[in-house]
Amino acid sequence: MPSTRGPARPQGPGLRGGGDASRRDALLREARSRATAPQFLATLARRVAQQTTSQENPSSPALWSYLRDDIGAMLAAMGFSFEVVPNPLPGAGPLLIAERSEDSALPTVLTYGHADVIRGQDAQWRAGLSPWTLHREGNRLYGRGTADNKGQHSINLEALRMVLGARGRLGFNMRLIMESGEETGSPGLEAFCRAWSERLQADVFIASDGPRLRPEQATVFGGSRGVLNFELRVKARDAPHHSGNWGGLISNPGIRLAHALATLSDPNGAIRVPEWRPNSLSPSVRAALAGLEVEGGDDAPVVDRNWGEPGLTPAEKVFGWNSFEVLAFRTGNPEAPVNAIPPSAHAHLQLRYVVGTEAHNIVPALQRHLGAAGFGDVEVLAHDRSGMQATRLDPDHPWCVRVLNSIQRSLGRRPAFLPNLGGSLPNAVFSQVLGLPTVWIPHSYAGCQQHAPNEHLRVDLMEEGLAIMVGLFWDLGQAGELSAA
């Protein structure tokens, strides 16, 4: 499909009069009410209704339309030029690149979002809810993509529009990338950013995805843990054999694989593969995480403080350490078991890892570990995609400090700062390929049911998120106040 271009349109002057502080305060009050205004909710409802799933059809017409006709049209009305272009990786979804340039002497901000969502899981939503219909119940807005990521990038785009409307300009240059394959590992995003690197030059990267540390605590994070998924398989033979005739005479792949898995962690989840354990938690990371509590809000699981690496706080375990998970384990036919020794067994596994872990050594270290433990019959199947890499931003970085100060000014309280998110994002593309300091400001929370039925965005967090972003974009446009370091 050919590229789709949108024209840049001039932006008219906004509100005039009044001191800057009073204008900023008035705009923040308006932002909190705008979050539940009919126009904004209608925009979010329209975006939720578009079935932009990337797992079933990575380059569906819905993805092209979302980028071109919805996001692109909104950006063009705000004076951005934009293009929707094919993915450099054949078969992967399109990408949008947009820019608004006001003055080459001003700092430039790069932002990001993703248009795609996971599959709807329609039949699993509770009665009265549909993944493709925005539905409000009290403090919750239900719908697929409300939390990940349509609601979050809609908040940021609306904040940009409000600042433009009030000031008549941003006061900085803005560039934007929106991809359509984040839920399938962001295929082609790195190649796209390398090819378009000159157009994507900026001073800082600021975007929104993921959850807050706690629902009531505004949060900023500077990177994300890396992630690698892989499989273990034991195949002893081609067919099952009667357990009465062969039990005790031939190996059981399920038992072999269970014991192999037991060598990878202790009974409480502490990692036993030496190369999978970070060397240490640096003093700056420990200081940033000190006193932080992990809490997912209503319906979230209770933190099991005896699980994982002993001696670490929950915040240190999820933001400063590695975690190993068994995602699925299968042998035989669990739905209809028979009295036969299964011929094979396999498990799907995952390692989330922090900066300091040698990503290229994760699978080789596993193979060496299994061989040394006597499990040479266990095959390691590494996925073709290498996963997302670990990244981190120092809490003392000037851009981090500026963003934290702006949020504190808007809310009257200091936000939490995490050197990296516990989950994984394609942040390495922005921090390593483009060489930018990366600052993420999430507008959701861990209990949002993202990637599950009944996904939702909390209304109070949406109101606060819009105020945060309006205040930040206003501050970024103040001449000389927040210029790049």
Characterize this entry briefly.
By secondary structure, this protein is an alpha+beta fold.
Question: What is the CATH architecture assignment of the largest domain?
Answer: 3-Layer(aba) Sandwich
Q: Mean of residue pLDDT? A: 93
Computed over alpha carbons, the radius of gyration is 24 Å
Total count of strands: 18
The percentage of residues in β strands lies in 15-25%
Q: What strand order characterises the main sheet? A: 1-2-3-7-4-8-17
Structural domains: how many: 2
- What composes the largest sheet? 7 strands, mixed
Give the tags.
single chain; 485 residues; alpha+beta; Aminopeptidase; Alpha-Beta Plaits; 2 domains; 7-stranded mixed beta sheet; 4-stranded antiparallel beta sheet; 18 strands; 30% helix; globular; disordered C terminus
Kindly describe this structure:
The chain has 485 residues and is of the alpha+beta class. It folds into two domains: 295 residues, Zn peptidases (Aminopeptidase), CATH 3.40.630.10; 113 residues, Alpha-Beta Plaits (2-Layer Sandwich), CATH 3.30.70.360. Helices cover 30% and strands 18% of the residues. It contains 13 helices and 18 strands. The strands form five sheets. It has a seven-stranded mixed beta sheet with strand order 1-2-3-7-4-8-17, with helices on both faces. Strand 5 and strand 6 form a beta hairpin. Helix 11 packs across helix 13. The longest helix has 18 residues. The protein is globular and about 85 Å long. The two termini are 40 Å apart. The C terminus is likely disordered.
